[in-house]
Amino acid sequence: MDTELSYLQRKGAEYFIQETKRVIEQRHTALPMAYVHSFGCQQNQSDTEKIMGMLSAMGYGFTPTAENADLVLFNTCAIRENAETKILGNIGAIKQYKMANPNLVVCVCGCMVQQKHIVEKLQKSYGFVDIIFGTHALASFPELLYQKLAGLETKLVNVLDKTDDIVEGLPVHRQDALKAWLPIMYGCDNFCTYCVVPHVRGRERSRRPEDILAEVRQLVADGYREITLLGQNVNSYGKGLSPAINFSGLLRQIAEIPGEFRVRFMTSHPRDCTHELLDTIAAYDKLCIGIHLPVQSGSDRILQAMNRHYDTAHYLELVDYARKKIPGVMFTSDIIVGFPGETRAEFESTLELIRKVRFEKLFTFIFSPRPGTKAAEMEDPVPYSVKSGWLRELLEVQTDIVYDLYAQMIGHTFVVLAEAESKSKPGVLIGRTNTNVLMEFEGTKDLIGHFIPVKALKATKTAVIGQIIE
After folding, report:
1. What is the DSSP-derived secondary structure letter of residue 36?
2. Model confidence over 18-63: pLDDT tens digits?
3. pTM
4. DSSP character string of 64-90
5. How many CB atoms lie within 10 A of CB 256?
6. Which of 44, 163, 173, 246 could pair with 52 in a Cys bridge, judged by C-beta atoms 3.0 to 4.6 Å apart?
7. CA torsion angle 15 21 23 29 (round to 10)
8. Number of H helices, E strands in the chain
9. What span, in angstroms and rounded, lies between the C-alpha atoms of 272 and 132?
């Protein structure tokens, strides 16, 4: 959104990047090093690439460990309680380095610090943290760091409740040379009762299509072979934009860009998944046919309690339509086990749905109450030990399904993007099909970055073993 405020934010970031660089050059004779660690989802990873882009522009290099760093930054996740506990443990471990090096700058940002109680906890119990900024204040990071390094402030906090602006043009330090994250929208309007995302990421804001298309063209020109479009609900892309455009229209424009690349997207909400979208995927070879469509539960009562705005019949209709229109399509999904009040019979409904759809991959979670969400206030009588048993049972079912799906691939040839050499098997390359199935095959390193025809020879529980077809 090219508003006056977002323009000023970008210009302010550019100004303070240069000012901070000047201060760093005065203070350091050697290249200062930053340790940056990102927790959570792909959107967090994309934000981290912008943060690293700004740090690089300010004159920092990067180190894989915090021990000898001049700056430590944690980009945090608030999606589950155990994630917050782990992150606080990681932050606490930095205190020893701060004591050894008082000039070390410690920063904490991201979703966790959008919660007031977390900011208060950091200020009270983690006093060695110098800079705290939230998801809406990404562009303010260079100014905050400048104030710290220039000695203008010692403890800095910038946590905005919301923003309607998208700041374009921030530098990006991408961590992969072949695959790129590309946000097309921010925030979420769905307010699922278990989810903290709308509270920490704000309401939906879509990027202008011309900005997205320009970024795709640049990524293709730079040699990227796989681009993943990001949003909390990419299917609702385009709300409030003029002229009008929806996600299907954006995908068509991206798929028509010249070049050898393919496109994935996540996350896709079943509520807004349409036949038009599935027809669009079927029409363009560049659009991958591995679709992440989180169902969360196989019980209609639980789906209603989650405020998901669809039922299992609607979900299964989408799957059936996709399989008629898109040969070879595969689905992945998210499942929450043990939502408040879930019964054994309702859990078995989830197992039944999993057997019907036959997902290629499941991201499974035991329900975690998040402060500020409606589900956190619901009665939850089922013990955690029972929920853990349900999850183990679900994973056993899913493991058998995946092995069977992979076994059905044997004898067929798939186009695979060769991504890297296996760390444990010299001479073996790893890559993924357009359904996102992991394949291993013998090959030389010069094939990395190319799309290779690979014939499936053997199935395992985690990957398919193949052979390059000349």
Report:
1. E
2. 999 999 999 888 999 999 999 999 999 999 999 999 999 999 999 9
3. 0.94
4. S-STT-SEEEEEE--SSHHHHHHHHHH
5. 10
6. 173
7. -170
8. 14, 19
9. 35
